[in-house]
Amino acid sequence: MLDAGHALGSRTAMRRADLLEPCKRFWIEEPLHPEDIRGYGRLPQSMSQPLAAGEGASSVAQVERLIDEGGVDIVQMT
Ligand SMILES: [Mg+2]
User: Which pTM was predicted?
Assistant: First the structure.
């Protein structure tokens, strides 16, 4: 698993995912800012590994947005 800690932009996240593809990660976690739902929505289509996010989510509505608009595969609501 790779936790990017919100540190990447969507283009950088996609490039890093491609570079690290041979490592066969289980998931890439929170590469983008938590409010960049549009950015999350673009990532899964270009990444072969599951996308995890949602550590800061505090409501069902936020989780639904991550899944429906962001295409997040694994929600890590705390
Ligand atoms: Mg984390």
Answer: 0.80
